[in-house]
Design goal:
It comes from Rhodoferax saidenbachensis. This is Pimeloyl-ACP methyl ester carboxylesterase. It holds the Pfam family PGAP1. By secondary structure, the protein is an alpha/beta fold. It has two domains: 91 residues; 227 residues, Alpha/Beta hydrolase fold, catalytic domain (Rossmann fold, 3-Layer(aba) Sandwich), CATH 3.40.50.1820. It has 13 helices and ten strands. A hairpin with a 2-residue loop joins strand 1 and strand 2. Helix 1 packs antiparallel against helix 2 and helix 5 crosses helix 6. The protein is globular, with a radius of gyration of 24 Å.
Length: 420
């Protein structure tokens, strides 16, 4: 007897997602309990009532109640996790023939962007692992059958990286008139074979950069035809990942030997002010004992998001520091790689350039100067040749992914015979 069709609300939900959702619900319940206890103790503390052994906790019967809530929540969550862990193979088998929908992948990408570091640290199955994808399939180095046939690919590779809270499917855009736009599809006319990167954008940029470098070495070693050239096309945070991968590997590594071009689209090379504004929320909420516990809400921002404060690309930029504490920019300068043609497209929603528009408007998320690599300190400025810079007016951050003007500029830069 055939199963009844799923309700529309569940069409994009896979059975195997249940385990990850249970973990998130357990963590959320414990977090709310901690926050409530913190507010409770803040009020009591203002009246001189001492608290528990650690900051933000209560004592006596009240403390016991909160500890019981935490304990029961953890017990129930662990029990459900254990049961679902045993059922995971069956859940995976049930989903084996169910294709991933763009809607589901978009939700997972956003979830990983906001909480991806926590998902990965807790082993949550909803955490995305960095992977290379071609023709809609993951390249799995342990299963040679998933590799593309040599007759269908070339040795001139286009590596494509998305930005924060996004995934590789979102490079394809369908207009209201039904026109399908994709930069990679257009660049295929120049002989490029596209390989997309999907990654957990909630992790530290440098962690993703190291993982990317490892995967690219595997790609060069296992691609069915010799790799003669790698060109990287990176949007937003993807550009920071690319610079991190380059910075953490030597020029003699296999993929660096064939790296020819890097094109940055709206990359916050020197950070994004919206993250710095988010950091100010932490400071304001922590200013009074009554609002201090709610600062934990502001601190839900993932490691990937806080790396956007100044545009971190090196592990040393964040290691040993409190990423939620406001401080000066202490990044070690990381220049553009030598011997590689580097290009940048910076967008602005303004109709023309101006001091105010350059510093405040930008593309709505990234200031124009940051996307151009400009900095008040000369040692931090990224030097793009004038001919390798493009400023797109009346364009926002997301439109960089599909606007035909951007496609035309990419074609002009990457056409055979273009020099550094």
């Amino acid at each position: 007897m055939p199963l009844p069709p799923r309700p529309k609300a569940l069409q994009h939900f896979r059975a195997s997602d249940l385990r990850g959702v249970v973990q998130l619900a357990t963590q959320a319940t414990r977090g709310v309990a901690r926050m409530a206890e913190g507010v409770h103790q803040s009020v009591w503390g203002s009246m001189g009532v001492p608290g528990g052994k650690t900051t933000g906790t209560t004592r006596g019967l009240t403390g016991l109640v909160y500890q019981t809530v935490q304990g029961v929540t953890q017990l129930v969550g662990s029990g459900a996790e254990a049961i679902l862990g045993r059922l995971q193979p069956l859940l995976d088998a049930a989903d084996a023939e169910a294709p991933d929908t763009p809607q589901r992948e978009a939700v997972l990408a956003a979830l990983n962007g906001v909480l991806g570091d926590r998902l990965a640290a807790s082993g949550n199955p909803l955490a995305t692992r960095l992977q290379l994808r071609h023709a809609g399939q993951r390249l799995d180095w342990t299963k040679l059958s998933t590799q593309p046939a040599a007759a269908t690919v070339g040795g001139k590779l286009l590596i494509i990286l998305h930005g924060l809270c996004m995934n590789d499917l979102q490079w394809t855009h369908t207009t209201a008139t039904g026109e399908v736009r994709n930069h990679a599809a257009a660049l295929a006319a120049l002989g490029y074979t596209p390989v997309y990167v999907r990654y957990n954008s909630g992790l530290h940029t440098s962690d993703n950069g190291a993982a990317l470098a490892t995967e690219l070495d595997q790609l060069v070693a296992r691609w069915p035809v010799p790799v003669t050239e790698i060109t990287v096309l990176a949007h937003s945070m993807g550009g920071l990942l690319t610079r991190s991968a380059v910075q953490q590997t030597g020029p003699s590594t296999p993929w660096r030997k064939v790296l020819k071009n890097i094109v940055f689209l709206g990359t916050p090379h020197h950070g994004a002010p919206l993250e710095r504004a988010g950091n100010w929320v932490d400071v304001i909420l922590g200013a009074t004992p009554y609002s201090r516990p709610f600062a934990k809400l502001g601190q839900l921002r993932s490691a990937g998001i806080t790396d956007l404060r100044y545009g971190f690309v090196s592990p040393q930029d964040w290691q040993g520091r409190n990423r939620f504490q406001k401080g000066p920019d202490r990044r070690a300068p990381v220049p553009l790689p030598e011997g590689v043609a580097s290009y940048t497209v910076a967008a602005t929603t303004a109709t023309k350039r101006g001091a105010l528009a350059d510093r405040l408007l930008g593309d709505g998320l990234v200031p124009l100067r940051s996307a151009l690599g400009l900095h008040d300190e000369a040692k931090r400025t990224l030097v793009f040749a004038k001919s390798n810079q493009c400023i797109a007016h009346q364009m926002n951050h997301m439109e960089l992914l599909h606007r035909p003007e951007v496609t035309a500029q990419l074609m002009a830069w990457l056409a055979p015979g273009t020099s550094i």
